[in-house]
Specification:
binds pyridoxal-5'-phosphate; about 15% strand; alpha/beta; Aspartate Aminotransferase, domain 2; Aspartate Aminotransferase, domain 1; about 425 residues
Length: about 425
């Protein structure tokens, strides 16, 4: 007889997702065949061309010279005030919208999504994101007893599918009064897509239209995890200006993360940044999310908050860090460009990659394709409708020829 002590809502939860499973398979193969003989395209962090995990040198230098008391001490529950200011500054750069803008420190971008789901949807509500999405979104929803539904990210021209987006928004708002939409852009995981200026206008116009019904409460979460690898700083952020003048019942929340932008993945530091035209909504944002932080993790890593403040207030350090980051942005672009070029040569259909850590090949049977790829000692992540390749982690010399291997595996299954 099996014994379970879990409460009814907790029964059956199980932790291992496909990314972790694929990564475990790659690690096993590395111990068996040696690292040089394996292509590990499962990792969601930047590896250099010698396959070492990258820490941006300026981030490392500042981190190692922080006073120990700044590393070990608690931070205020909602974050160090200077950190929150710095997070807002680096998020918007020259594109700060005309709005009330408030921030709360969170455990990376993940913490932001956790709090939004917890505080801005009703139990049983459905949250909306695109069909291609970062898998944990559904975990955040299910764990909080919400559901996740999807619209189609791409239309027939491989552009943002505003029609599908608008239909789903309409359907869900016909059933519920609160709607959270999670939009991961720019440099979307897993496709590498970034919305154009026009596409942002379409998304915001659509939401403004539905917000005319003042009984509805709409929250647009913009997951900017890969913002710092999306291209020129202010071009990649240009859409943020459009978040000014939103109706009071439409709140934008940006999920700021230091994981990728500052290579501080495991330090678990980020912020939720609320953008609203309503002073009351801004105040409520601070109150309810600070409260949930207390109830979830207490406070966030002080040392990493101090690191951002230190870098941001010293122009020289900031420019240096941006140059280091740009080096890796260009490296990732180069890897993706080789893959894209070779994919064309072997007629391998890819989703439109613009920037970011990952690119995706649509597939009928992603699990079988990934399994087949193991024969060539290639490890990638099977998604629901495709195969994800982490160009952030595969060195140039291993990228060459990879598209052909994927095409071969696709043809064989
Ligand atoms: N959003 C996306 C799309 C991601 O890929 C990730 C990390 O892989 C995150 C958010 C969250 O990262 P973190 O919680 O480390 O900031």
């Amino acid at each position: 007889m099996t014994v379970s002590l879990a409460a009814s809502h907790a029964k059956g939860k199980f932790g291992l997702d496909k990314i972790m499973a694929a990564s475990a398979a790659a690690n096993k193969a590395i111990t068996q065949y040696g690292r040089d003989n394996i292509i590990n395209a499962t990792i969601g962090a930047i590896l250099d061309d010698d396959e070492n995990l990258v820490c941006l040198p300026t981030a490392e230098k500042v981190f190692r010279t922080l006073p120990i008391t700044e590393v070990i001490n608690y931070a205020p529950i909602s974050g160090l005030p200077e950190y929150l200011e710095a997070a807002i500054d680096v998020t918007f750069a020259a594109n700060r919208p005309d709005a009330y803008i408030k921030a709360i420190a969170t455990s990376g971008g993940s913490g932001c999504i956790h709090h939004v789901v917890h505080n801005y949807s009703e139990i049983g509500d459905t949250v909306l994101t695109s069909d291609w999405h970062w898998g944990p979104y559904s975990v955040f929803c299910k764990d909080a007893m919400r559901k996740l539904d999807t619209y189609e990210l791409f239309d027939a021209e491989q552009k943002f599918n505003i029609r599908s987006f608008a239909e789903k928004v309409k359907d869900l708002l016909a059933k519920q009064n609160s709607l959270i939409i999670i939009l991961n852009a720019p440099a979307h995981n897993p496709t590498g897509y970034s919305l154009s200026d026009d596409e942002w206008d379409q998304v915001l116009d659509c939401l403004k239209e539905y917000a005319k019904d003042t009984a509805k409460r709409i929250v647009l979460v913009i997951d900017i995890a890969y913002l710092d690898y999306a291209g020129e700083k202010n071009e990649a952020r240009a859409f943020m200006k459009k978040l000014g003048g939103l109706p009071p019942n439409l709140l934008a929340i940006l999920a700021f993360s230091m994981s990728k932008g500052y290579t501080m993945y495991g330090q678990r530091t980020g912020a939720m940044i609320g953008v609203t035209s309503s002073q009351e909504v801004a105040k409520e944002f601070e109150d309810i999310n600070g409260y949930t932080s207390r109830a979830t993790w207490s406070s966030i890593n002080r040392g990493c908050q101090r690191l951002l403040v230190t870098i941001h207030k010293d122009k020289e350090l900031e420019v240096q860090l941006e140059q280091e980051r740009n080096f890796y942005y260009r490296l990732i672009q180069e890897r993706a460009a080789i893959f894209t070029r070779e994919a064309k040569e072997v007629n391998l259909n890819m989703l439109p990659y613009i920037a970011g850590f990952f690119l995706t090949i649509p597939a009928q049977n992603p699990d079988a394709v990934c399994e087949k790829l193991h024969e060539d000692k290639v490890f990638a992540v099977p998604l629901a409708k495709g195969v994800r390749i982490a160009v952030c982690a595969v060195p140039l010399k291993k990228i060459t020829g990879l598209a052909a291997k994927v095409a071969k595996a696709m043809a064989a299954v």
